[in-house]
Every structure is written in structure tokens, then in C-alpha cells.
Amino acid sequence: MLTVDFDRLGLEPGDRVLDMGCGAGRHAFEAYRRGADVIAFDQDADELAGVRELFAAMKEAGEVPDGAEADVKEGDALALPFAAGEFDRIVAAEVLEHIPADIQAIEELVRVLRPGGTMAVSVPRWLPEIVNWKLSEDYHNVPGGHIRIYSDKELIGKLVNAGLEYAGKDYAHGLHSPYWWIKCAVGVQNDEHPLAKAYHRLLVWEIMKQPRVLRLAGKVLDPLIGKSLVLYLRKPEDGPEDKPEDKPGEVTTADV
Length: 256
Prior knowledge:
GO terms for molecular function: S-adenosylmethionine-dependent methyltransferase activity. Keywords: Methyltransferase, Transferase. It holds the Pfam family Methyltransf_11. This is SAM-dependent methyltransferase. One of its GO terms (biological process) is methylation. There is one protein chain. This protein is α/β, with parallel strands linked by helices. It has a domain at 6-124 and 143-173 and 227-237: Vaccinia Virus protein VP39 (Rossmann fold). The protein has nine helices and seven strands. Strands 3-2-1-4-5-7-6 form a seven-stranded mixed beta sheet, sandwiched between helices. Helix 7 (176-186) packs antiparallel against helix 8 (194-209). The longest helix is centred in the first third of the chain and has 16 residues, at 45-60.
């Protein structure tokens, strides 16, 4: 299930796209399916291996337009191994909340986005996330877990201060917030709790079948309790040019 609206991002066939912190690759796959030249970037080699395999399977099955290319790259979000202005579109979905040096990561994303290019950034929304943290320490207090909760104003401010123009926001996955409230209340590892199991079946139905009733419910709930905040931004055409010394040094696979 996608968090980012690629039409709103402005993605077109042939665009060079970076999915930073791609995880299992859901946004990278959609960009590839739409004919983009995609780089799926992450620090998790195992995740990237699976993404690479599915890229190959998509091409073999004829699911992507002729000329579209896709690859994976392992590295550090604080030192992206790409040239300044290399990408037309960037997606950073549900990743900044994991990174201690989030401002440095944002600066790297801005550096590799071309002037006039667009970016979509999503993070857990403040209200649903606050509820999760209040209900359960285990929800976020794990290695590699969420280390902060963003307000809309804070995240927009950090992105604008880094040189982007704010173009709008949206909220997504309204049906998912109650599921995580249930999980946090009964135990995040307690997958066998009857209420958690029942709600999980509902979400699987939503994802796999997209029934009209749940689509309508999502449209109602997204602005109210949508689990994800999604921001859309643009790099100004007349922004300051990147200096050679702004480019990162050697890439590491250290945790970010």
C-alpha cells in the first residue's frame, strides 16, 4: 500500500527517482511500474536483495515500460553516494523518524535533487504516534525504532530551512491507526490477541481487495486520524548551486 501520491509528486516516465530508505521497496516498485529510472536506497542489504529480485521479476513479466531501469544501492543516508542534482523526484517515506541526524539527512536529500525537482516526505503523524507512545514503550523503544515524533510545523520548517519550497500535505492510512492502538494496548508482539487478529484481517482485505466500503472509510478517516503525514516539496529553480566541497566523502554502511 502506497503512502505517497505519485501523481501529486509529478512523476513522469523517464524521470530519475530515488527511493531513500526504500525498505521492502513498495514505492520503488510503483515508480518503476510507471516508467521511471529508479534507485532503491537503503542500509539493509537483506531488504535490498529482495528488492533487486522483484525488480528483475517485474521486468521479466513485462510489468514495466520499455526503457525503464531500476537498481539498488546500499549506503548511509547522511552521505548519499550520488552527484548533486542527480534526481528528478525523491521519495523518503517513513524514514526520517529513525535517523538521529535528521537535518543532515534532509540536507543530503536536497543536495541530490535537481533544481525544479520534487520530493515527497512522509513520517508518522503526531496525534496517532503520541497515542502509540503513551500506550506502549515497546512500540518505539527498540533498536532502529522511532526516536522522535514530528509535528507538521516542525517537519515543514526543517525541510524549508534546507532549501525546499513547501507545496502541500496530505494524510494517509487512517484505517491503520486503530490497529496500532490495539497492538500497543494488548502488546505489540501479541499477534494472537483476538482483537488484533480480527483487525489485521480487515487491513489485509483493504490492501488486497480494496473494497469500496473501506476506500470510503479511508477517505473519511485519513484527515482525522491518518497514521502518516505526507509532505510535498519542490527545489527552487534558482536555488544556490552545490559546491564541490558539499559532496560527501566515502560511503559507509554504518547505522543512521
